[in-house]
Amino acid sequence: MDSSAYISLRDVVFSRSGRRIFDGVSLDIPRGRITAIMGPSGTGKTTLLRLIGGQLRPDSGSVVVDGHEVPRLKRKALYAFREKMGMLFQSGALFTDLSVFENVAFPLRVHTSLPEDMIRDIVLMKLEAVGLRGARHLMPSELSGGMTRRVALARSIALDPELIMYDEPFAGQDPIAMGVLVKLIRDLNSSMRLTSVLVSHDVPESLSICHYACIIADGKVIGEGSPEQLREHPSDQVQQFLQGQPDGPVPFHYPAEGAARDFGLSGGVS
Amino acid sequence: MIERIAAFGRLGLDTVSSFGRSGRFLAGVLGGVPRPATGFPLLMKQLYAVGVLSLPIIVVSGLFIGMVLALQGYTILSDYGSEAAIGQMIALTLVRELGPVVTALLFAGRAGSALTAEIGLMKATEQLSSMEMMGVDPLRRVVAPRLWAGFIAMPVLAAIFSVIGIWGGMLVGVDWLGVFEGSFWGNMQSSVDFVDDVLNGMIKSVVFGFVCTWIAVYQGYDCVPTSAGISSATTKTVVYSSLAVLGLDFVLTAVMFGDF
Amino acid sequence: MAQRTTEIIVGLFMIAGVAALLVLALQVSGLSAKSAESTYTIYANFNDSGGLTPRGRVSMAGVTVGTIESITLNKETFQARVKMSIHSDVDNIPADSSAVIRTSGLLGEQYIDISIGAEMESLKEGDTFYSTQSAMNLERLISNFASGRAGN
After folding, report:
1. d(Cα B52, Cα C112) in Å, to the nearest integer?
2. Can chain A be said to touch chain C, i.e. do they have 3 or more Cβ pairs within 8 angstroms?
3. Averaged pLDDT, C89-100
């Protein structure tokens, strides 16, 4: 076990609505680095973030973050623990009734009793870090998708957390917005010495910035390591995913009966 | 056949578990008392959204209902030569029954559905989740101010409804149909008792306010976070609130005004 | 919307609500400030108390002078014993006055009307009316009328 691991999952089993989402997942997320968690759609990557953040409890297994056993934390301790982490949701999840400035100021107002001018300074600094200081008075409905995510990012770093989790940050972004996000994730990680966990199925972008990656499929970890190690990984499933091959261990055709039967072709058993 | 019985059983269990969830939800909302510094502005904002913005519909409805009561009542009472009792008829009907009940039904339709849609949308766009991840309890921050606002606003709205209704009845009865103003008010005053009628009506509206708002915020919080889910939750709010109000009205009326 | 404006508007809303409640109290239900008046109690026994109810009116010469407190059955005399609270400043009701049950209007509520007697002495706390006239029984009246009998 890597002793500098910030997050450790051991044999985590989690089911929902009768479906086994994680079937004994064990992985380590190193401190101070960008780790990408990848996998096909629906494998439960967002669920993994929720398990780390304590929103969900695993059926069995342990989730240890910075030495704390997350599922065991009581409500108050859990809420205090969450002050150290920031989460960027797929849709940004800005509060629609607050302006950009107020959105970023929200965690500060709730968790600290700093005076107004200090809050103003901090908010403007965070907005400056994501390049949106000039947009402070806009309302979320007036922002583009990329800008929304940047504001959400500014909000998640407002309290100077140790950990940031990104849920599909690259989904549906145009190249410029993508480039901006990549730059921000990388710069924030190094300048604030964060541990960043990135959940995505965008292979090229994720591999380009992460230091360590894990691929999850069918409720298990099927491959992990640095980007170079993964590119050389022997497993067919990993290679299919990384290279985006349409057919392989994950078949192209959804299971169906023989074509002959459906198309009325005579002769020949399917 | 067995399938249908099983489905019925499942429906029953779902309903019971839904009640249980809503009870726990309520405990979570009422249990955390928010800090006055942050809680008060939130409450103000919700009182505005839920109370003040409901005023137009309440006032207009009250006016028309009062006027219709006067018209209908006049026709019936003049058969007995008791037109002068119209003031008392309108006042008692409004204060005891129509004020609390109609206000609650209108509230459920206007404010209740708005609350459900708003909270449901916050759930669907993950705003509630992100609040949780930031260490803020959405029950305390989002739901509690709305619940208290509905609780406070409803009796206020019901009182205003009754007063406007009586005034509308006076406009029709006295100014239009010619009932003597003195007997209009005199009969009313001698038959409406403050404690038994007005206060009981107020108690009813407080109970209705609590129930309607609870149903509205719970449906929003518990909905399936899709557009279909939100629309179904909004419908449920209006239907369940209306049924609950009418049912509770029967129970409360029997207890307060009946001769148990 | 600015915080201040919202607060002012909500404040006005609440004031409107309280004002409505006041209107309901004073104008609609006739709650008067002088409710804690001093009263004294007198009794009356009726053969038939008819539609009298507690809180009913007690009047003299058309002026309301008190309220009915309670109506109970006297099991020995099988009469209805009505307890009334009369305003203290109406302290000169002659001792031989009678209490009559009247109806206000044709279908209105019933009340007690005090018909003045001639004595010098007045009714005091705890006194009972000497003579009473019971409620007019509508069925009896109709059957009397129908069988052509005059008077009672």
Report:
1. 47
2. no
3. 84
